[in-house]
Amino acid sequence: MNLRFFGSFLILPSIIGALGARAQEASPEAPPAEVAKDEALPTMPTLADFVTAGAAHAAANLEAEAIIGQREREHEQAILGLLPVLSANAAYTRNQTEASVSIPDATGRVTSIVITPQNQLDFTVRLDATLVDVGAFYGIGSASLRVESAQLSKQATELDVEREVTQAYWQRVAAEAVVRSAERSIAVAIENRRVVAVRKEADLASELDLDRADSAIARAKQTLADATLSKSLAARKLRTLTGLAADGAAPTFEAKLEPAAPLQSLEDRAANTPSVLLAAKNVESAEASETVSWLGLVPRISASAQERFTNAAGFGPSPVYSIALQAEWRLDPAVIGRSRTEGATLKVAQASHARAVSAANAAIEDAWLEVESRTEAVRSARSEALTATRAAANAKLLYQANKASQLEVITADRDALAAEVNRIQAEANLELSRALLLLAQRQGTAP
């Protein structure tokens, strides 16, 4: 997964481009009405709440769980296929005539023996058992490996879902922070327009100054609209993944600036991540499948026992039983071809395992580098935001003292909003990068 897109998805790029006036904390004209409205809302569920709900609700997780059930049934089928089979057969036959013979004994007495009665009844009980079928016995182990692969696949899927939930959560939190900033900016832009209108009445400002003030309000509203859209999209994605509504006020946050653990200490973490364990298990499964295919050339030994009940026993007794032992060997070219195909599949699995190990190492390293880079970005963004805030407040004071133009005030407020949006984005990106670093090194559990 390419971690370098984090800076783009959290806040729509147009938010930075939609430049507008920003509320200054030092300005008494900026009413806190919107902030109070947000504080009155219920609190949005936490990230842990969303992750827990996503594990139980996400369609991908439910599908992975269903696949485990399917593989377990296949394993059961492999076992049941080797158990003895008991069968019973009953038949009624209406013969055209009865066949019988009369046999006299030494005393001259005649005994009639029915060989084939006109109404013939037959009942047979048969038991078939596999004694030696190496391929089938080995196939049970192969089916067991497929169950374990499905379990590891579920772990990898759960990790992917948690990653998506984490991204959507921080997008939602960051977007709301921008919404609050934009709402304050609109309030300040409206107040700035009121001041310009008063100055225009006193012939201290022009009609162009008033138009510029109106444009500043429009730009601030566009920033609010873009941030609201990003907030809604993130909330919809969270609801889809977890079933929870991302309503309520998002928590305020401040990114931590402490460095991540040394990269060298994370180098051995990739070997036990779910994706790598899954790839390794797939190699085992492919090896087992190839072995099972070649074992199709090994002779198969089976036994059967049968007992027959009939009223057409002829000169023999009824019931009568029989026991048979059978050996079967087939030299089937298709088995050879199938085995070679399984061998090619094994090579693919081995290559996939090598690729999974490389990808896991790269994911950890990329996430670690993102944390390092985002930490510096937050420091820079905080400094720029503080400087821009002071510049905007200073420009307003100079404008009130007729020492700065109204264009300078609008430009300073616009730069302050852009710096604030950049700071929020940098803070959220750093928190997301830290979370993704933990997910990238999450250890899987061997079945």
Concise description?
With 447 residues, the protein is α+β, with helices and mostly antiparallel strands. It has helices spanning 6-9, 13-17, 33-40, 47-57, 59-80, 134-201, 207-242, 274-294, 333-400, 406-440, and strands at residues 85-94, 99-104, 110-116, 119-132, 300-310, 320-328. It starts with 5 loop residues before the first helix and ends in a 7-residue tail after the last helix.
Q: How large is the radius of gyration?
A: 40 Å
Return the structural class.
Answer: alpha+beta
**CATH topology description:** Outer membrane efflux proteins (OEP)
Indicate how many domains the architecture comprises.
1
> How many runs of DSSP E, i.e. beta strands?
6
What characteristic shape results from the CA principal axes?
A: elongated
Q: Could you say what the CATH architecture is? A: Up-down Bundle
Order of helices and strands: HHHHHEEEEHHHEEHH
Summarize the biggest pleated sheet: 4 strands, antiparallel
Characterization of the model:
With 447 residues, this protein is α+β, with helices and mostly antiparallel strands. It has one domain: Up-down Bundle (Outer membrane efflux proteins (OEP)). The protein contains ten helices and six strands; from the N terminus they run H-H-H-H-H-E-E-E-E-H-H-H-E-E-H-H. It starts with 5 loop residues before the first helix and ends in a 7-residue tail after the last helix.
